[in-house]
């Protein structure tokens, strides 16, 4: 498979950086990993819900080649001030240490650390150059990077795993155990398994993946990502970590009473939900509000999945909007700039649904838009957002995305 024009432009930058920093990637491989767009359930992964989403065409490209040494040498065109990130296999800073807090190098360090901890023998180093155009916040840039690094190092070291789902666990461990980011498995799953033109359905009960085509006759629509231009900190520094602790706290409270649950997703019965809210709502209103979102989102999830299968994108969009209201009002994970974007596009003709994306606080919002409404959305955002948020007038962006494969490898391009 050949790179697109956009990919060729990225590769040209990579070649130039490789030359400038004396990294030998000539004749190597190019691995491209995607971003993701979650349709349901946002923040459901660490609460045990089923998941559904697609891969989207904002990417990380990494050109790499084994270098015949035990050194790993990488340069990112997105973080040029960090220079070449270089280390000997097996010699990385301690997990969650101050030495890694401010550098993107914490990701390759973490991959090295986790792979060795899990018993994988890395002996072959690589030279690599990376470049990405995934917005920071909402589209899983860190998960895409971890998946790319793991797969590329496995390839260079001729390592195979029995099940691809193990890659998801390894990528999550890099963020959880090495970096200290409390992410779930949604992002890694959607990036690794995404297929062009398909929705990816993940069932945590048996860790199965199912590809779901959209039903025939669906309205022609586009996925639009509305990057607010805000700089979102890592999940470990955000409201995301607070919400996860709150959900775990409610589960612990319920376990000590008559509700033997292992996660909030276990609460699917309306009568049980009502009983919990009645019993604990006055004492723990915030915790019960988090449950209210998860409970409602699970009910909507099955409606959304059936609508997708039926080609009813209008209902998919309406549920996407309902989820956004729940994330804003019950889960309280959104942010002012994210909601400004939603407010701007909500009444634009052709917009089927909109909400914040990803970890929360900052980053990007997203919308499902009829094809004929794309330009109207773009014009509305370009006019109204700088007026509402002048501090980000030169930083925001609007992306129109396609549904793509999560992982692609290109040979013969270097």
From TrEMBL:
The keyword Transferase applies. Keywords: ATP-binding, Kinase, Nucleotide-binding, Transferase. One of its GO terms (cellular component) is cytosol. It comes from the Bacteria. GO terms for molecular function: ATP binding; galactokinase activity. GO terms for biological process: galactose metabolic process. The keyword Glycoprotein does not apply. Belongs to the GHMP kinase family. GalK subfamily. This is GHMP kinase N-terminal domain-containing protein.
